[in-house]
Amino acid sequence: MSSNQLLKGKRGIIFGALNEASIAWKVAELCHAEGAQIVLTNAPVAAKVGQTGQLAEKLGATLIYADVTKMDDMENLISQSMEVLGGKLDFVLHSVGMSLNVRKKNAYTDSNYDYMHTTMDISAMSFHRLMQTLWKQDAMNEWGSILALSYIAAQRIFPDYGEMADAKALLESFSRSFGYHFGKAKKVRVNTISQSPTKTTAGSGVGGFDSFFNYADKMSPLGNADSESCAQYCVSMFSDYTRMVTMQNLFHDGGFSFTGISTDFMETFKD
Fold first, then answer.
1. Which residues contact 4 (CB under 8 A, 6 or more apart)?
2. Right CATH number for 11-267 from 3.40.50.80, 1.10.150.120, 3.30.429.10, 3.40.50.720?
3. How does pLDDT run across 232-242, given as a tens digit for each residue?
4. H/E element holding 146?
5. Are 95 and 49 in contact (CB under 8 A)?
6. Which of 43, 53, 73, 98 has its CA 20 to 30 A from that of 126?
7. Residue 165 parent element (H or E)
8. Residue 207 has what pLDDT?
9. pLDDT tens, residue by residue, 52-79
10. CB atoms within 10 A of CB 8
11. 89, 95 contact by CB (below 8 A)
12. Which regions in the chain score pLDDT beneath 70?
């Protein structure tokens, strides 16, 4: 793909590029190709289970490990990133999510509340913690863009998605609430992107994922949006072309979110 240098001169942080299957991995590669300087960050455990270090080496990017549940780590990440990049930030991608109840296959009606607290802390409260840190350090340039990745289970019931649906609903609420303050005071925009089911490490861990994926693909007039197209959408949201878009949950799902029934799906019910 040819580069248009949409992000030339911009600086940003990308969370969650665990491996080549990660949406954040594709976003990081495309941001780099479009002329941006980036810092990569991931949880310390990713040093053992992921390949973020390889991506950092490939892109010539700095990698700073940070636990998103710890304020000290978040504060250090933001201050170090500005130092490494040589100034304030123009964009940030929050691509962080983990559910212990889903991972442990606990039924939603029999949730472990300690696990649920951890899920909310990692998957949603971390977004508020990130934005509060950016706010307090005055780390964002005017017309900067902050994004988080979400899923339509925040609005509709997908039983196997469990407590992650609640976490995504809270994540989207934080985007609107903090988005107002960031826009009013600093002209920074905050949005969430509600992506199609995508074959990432996290997504594939959800029970019945193949059914999720195939159902959405049949229901969507354009089919499921893949991670590469999601990366392109993220880059467009980081660019100056979308500077008046804020406090939105943006569906990037091939039309799934507004399709009542599809002809392909109806075929499965024919006698």
1. 34
2. 3.40.50.720
3. 999 999 999 99
4. strand 140-150
5. no
6. 53
7. helix 164-186
8. 63
9. 999 999 999 999 999 999 999 999 999 9
10. 12
11. no
12. 1-2, 201-207, 271
pTM of the model: 0.95
Residues 6+ positions from 187 with CB-CB distance below 8 Å: 142, 143
What is the spatial distance between Cα 86 and Cα 77, in angstroms, rounded to a whole number?
Answer: 14
Q: What is the dihedral of CA 178, 159, 121, 103, to 10 degrees?
A: -150
Residue type, 23: I
pLDDT of residue 266: 81
- Residues 6 or more apart from 173 whose CB is under 8 A from it? none
Query: What would you report as the CA-atom Rg of the chain, rounded to the nearest whole angstrom?
Result: 18
Residue with tokens 């580069």: 3
- Burial environment of residue 107 by CB neighbours within 10 A (0 to 12, 13 to 18, 19 or more): exposed
